[in-house]
Every structure is written in structure tokens, then in C-alpha cells.
Design a protein that fits this description.
Elements lengths: L8 E2 L35 E2 L5 E2 L5 H26 L13 H10 L5 E3 L5 H6 L8 H5 L8 H4 L10 H15 L11 E6 L6 H12 L4 E7 L2 E2 L2 E2 L11 H5 L3 E5 L3 H16 L5 E6 L18 H8 L3 H12 L4 H23 L19 H15 L7
Parallel strand pairs: 4-5, 5-6, 6-10, 9-10
Antiparallel strand pairs: 1-3, 2-3, 7-8
The structure holds thiamine diphosphate and magnesium ion (MG).
The site of thiamine diphosphate (TPP) has 15 residues, from strand 5 and strand 7.
């Protein structure tokens, strides 16, 4: 769906209005921006700490489109998990629970904006209009996960925690140097990372550079409460979004299970960046409902009641409740979406199973743009080694 300009925000940093978002889980947490409650009630608008008003003004069709996105990315994610369990993928990093954070921010991107993901941003990838098969070669081990970032305005998946924030900041500084900020058609850059990544030197260095050089950056932290088994309290003594103040740019916490609020906050931060107003740190407060990856067993380090508490804040259920209350879709609509999601998952499965195995010597391809004598020698040696097996049982 095309979001156009309907998700609106006005940004003014002069006023000092108090934040008015509802409290996060537990009651003791700082306020966050929420436009859709877990019960599916719309909050008209929320005023951020700097006076920015966050709201959205979607058409019925656009609300239905967001619901469709959320359901489909969850279904494709479940299919990928199943493929791994059946031995068809080497590993999978599920986005379960984080659909709203990813669809909200992904839909807030304008076509010219560049995204730098981690390894979990399958929902953002989907919103960029990219075929979901694209990253599965990496997880199946049949390619190195390389694609042309410029073609999709979506960089490569990055496994090295936090590294992409530096790449993104350098890229964003380049955007400024190219004179591509300053108007509505300016470019902005978004870097995704997790709560654990905020403890990395790379991320803190990226904050320094982006702040000092006023880079057109949005730092989008999905605080899913865990870095593998390490809980949030092992990363920070203060709410993560407050870290931004120390680097000289604004930070804001958004309900990451609320697709509307995530859209509004991300759109505002991106627009601020593209107009030359510098970086923003967004902390999307959410929860990783599944395992860290398929190699992880979260029952070893977290209790079931915690997971159940977050289940009640499910990002998809609240959009469905809202749509039903508004009576902007009927039962056929929901059935049709489920069917579309099922078809897309079957299609994904079939295409994953049909992926060709790579030839071993392709390992040497794409290392250098114009090759190298040393690499050529290594390829020849490796080819002779492979040939030595010909005719043997191995
Ligand atoms: C530099 C580096 N150190 C350690 C790891 C191993 N590792 C992989 S994922 C992960 C936790 C990341 O947690 P977080 O940033 O919260 O992201 P999440 O996986 O929860 O989305 C770690 C430590 C790595 N990939 N890179
Ligand atoms: Mg995390």
C-alpha cells in the first residue's frame, strides 16, 4: 500500500509541552507514544517532549493495508521458522512480536530513504517491496546474502552487532555532502539495531558522529527486552531513548507494538532528518515473542508469565480490534488476508526448496571487483583439490 503523506506530524522544537502518552507496561516506565491501545482504541494524538504532535490520518483502505502487512510478515516469518525446523534453513532470526515496529517504520520510509537493517528486519524488507526470498539464500547457506543496496534502498543484512549504525552514519554524512537534504524531497537514512547493540562501541561512535555532523539519520532501536539471554537491565540504567540527550540530539520512546504510533514517530524523525535537522533516536518498546534465533531456547532464561503479559499487547490483535470496532472490514476481509498470507507462505516455501546449491568455487567470486593474482592462485588450487575427489565415494 502507498502511504503517501497521510501519516502526519508537525515538528517544532521550541515548545516544552509535557509528553502525554500513556504509561508503558508496569506503570513505572517512562511515557511512550501510543496511538492505538492494546484494546484497539484510537488515541487521537500525542504531544512529544519537544512539542512534536504525533498522529496519523489514514484512510480505511490504508488501515486495512497495514493489517494486511502485519499478517503477511508474521506468516512468512512462521514459514521460515518451520523451514529451519525441517532442515531447509541453517538458522532463522524470527521477528515474532516485532511486526508493528517493523511495518510502522518500514511504511514511514519515503522511496528515496536508505535503510540499514540487522538480521531481523524481514518486515522492513517486505515494506520496501522486496521479494521475501531475497535474504533466505543467506539463511539457507547458498549465498552470502549480497544484493545491491541501491536497487532496493535497503542495505545488506548485518550480523555484526551495531556495525551497520556506523555504515549508515557515514552514508548519511555523504547524503549531506551531496546536498541531498533540506527539502521535502531530501533523503534520510534509518539504521536498525537492538537493545543489546546500544552497548557496542560502534553504536556510541555512530551517535557521536551523527550528532556532531548533524547527519540525516534515524537511529531505530527495537528494544525487544533481550540480547539473546541478556535482559535489558544488563545494558542500561536509564531508558535507552534518554541516551540521545548525551549525544546532543532528541530521543523518543514509542510503543513498538503499535503500528500507528511507530509510523507517526518514524515519519516525523525521517522528515526532520531530510530537512537538515539532524538525527533522532527512536526506542521502539517491544518484545521478542519467540527465541533469539532457532538456535536459542528462551525457556532457559525467561518466565512464561512475562511472555503472557506481552501476548496481551499483540501488535496484530489490536489493529484487528480497531478495524472491527470501526466496522471498516467484514469477516470476508479477514479470511481473504489469511488466505493471501497462506498462499504467499506456500510460494516462499516452494521457491526456497528449489534454490540451487552453489558451485564450491563461486566462493572466490565477488571478493574483488577486478580479481587478484593471489585469489586466482587460490581458486586454481581449490579446483585441483575438488578434482582429486572425482571418481571417489566422497
Ligand atoms: C560484534 C558482535 N558481538 C556479538 C555477536 C553475537 N550476537 C549475535 S546477536 C546478539 C545479541 C543482539 O541483541 P540485540 O542488539 O538486542 O538485538 P536482537 O537480536 O534482540 O534483535 C549477539 C551478542 C555478534 N553477532 N556481533
Ligand atoms: Mg534485543
Amino acid at each position: 500500500m502507498a502511504k503517501g503523506d497521510r501519516g502526519t506530524t508537525t515538528r517544532g522544537r521550541q515548545t516544552t509541552a509535557r509528553p502525554r502518552g500513556p504509561k508503558a507496561a508496569g506503570g513505572n516506565e517512562p511515557e511512550l507514544v501510543q496511538l492505538l491501545t492494546p484494546e484497539g482504541e484510537r488515541v487521537e494524538k500525542v504531544t512529544g517532549p519537544d512539542g512534536t504532535e504525533y498522529t496519523v490520518d489514514f484512510t480505511d483502505e490504508e488501515y486495512r493495508g497495514l493489517y494486511r502487512d502485519l499478517v503477511i510478515v508474521r506468516k512468512l516469518d512462521a514459514e521460515a521458522t518451520a523451514l529451519q525446523r525441517q532442515g531447509e534453513l541453517g538458522i532463522w532470526a524470527s521477528l515474532l512480536g516485532q511486526e508493528a515496529a517493523q511495518v510502522g517504520s518500514g511504511r514511514a520510509l519515503r522511496p528515496q530513504d536508505m535503510a540499514f537493517p540487522t538480521y531481523r528486519e524481514h518486515g522492513v524488507l517486505y515494506c520496501r517491496g522486496i521479494d521475501p526470498i531475497m535474504p533466505l539464500g543467506l539463511f539457507r547457506g547458498v549465498d552470502q546474502g549480497g544484493w545491491d543496496p541501491n536497487e532496493f534502498k535497503f542495505n545488506m543484512y548485518t550480523i555484526v552487532i551495531g556495525a551497520q549504525t556506523l555504515h549508515a552514519t557515514g552514508y548519511a554524512m555523504g547524503v549531506t555532502m551531496d546536498g541531498k537534504t533540506g527539502g521535502d524531497d531530501g533523503e534520510a537514512v534509518i539504521a536498525y539495531f537492538g537493545d543489546g547493540a546500544t552497548s557496542q562501541g560502534d553504536v556510541n561512535e555512530a551517535f557521536v558522529w551523527a550528532g556532531v555532523f548533524n547527519a540525516p539519520m534515524v537511529f531505530f532501536c527495537q528494544n525487544n527486552q533481550y540480547a539473546i539471554s541478556e535482559p535489558l537491565e544488563r545494558q542500561t540504567r536509564i531508558p535507552l531513548y534518554q541516551r540521545a540527550a548525551g549525544f546532543g540530539f532528541p530521543g523518543i520512546r514509542v510503543d513498538g507494538n503499535d503500528v500507528l504510533a511507530t509510523y507517526a514517530v518514524t515519519r516525523a524523525a525521517l522528515d526532520s532528518a531530510r530537512h537538515g535537522q539532524g538525527p533522532t533516536l527512536i526506542e521502539a518498546y517491544t518484545y521478542r515473542m519467540g527465541a533469539h534465533t532457532t538456535s536459542d531456547d528462551p525457556t532457559r532464561y525467561r518466565i512464561a508469565s512475562e511472555v503472557e503479559a506481552w501476548q496481551a499487547k499483540d501488535p496484530i490483535a489490536r489493529v484487528r480490534a480497531f478495524i472491527e470496532k470501526q466496522q471498516i472490514a467484514d469477516a470476508d476481509f479477514f479470511a481473504e488476508i489469511d488466505e493471501q498470507a497462506r498462499r504467499e507462505a506456500v510460494d516462499l516455501r516452494e521457491r526456497v526448496l528449489a534454490m540451487p546449491d552453489p558451485q564450491p568455487d563461486t566462493l572466490f567470486d565477488h571478493v574483488y571487483p577486478n580479481g587478484s593474482p593471489l585469489l586466482d592462485a587460490q581458486r586454481d588450487q581449490f579446483s585441483r583439490y575438488l578434482e582429486s575427489f572425482e571418481g571417489s565415494a566422497h
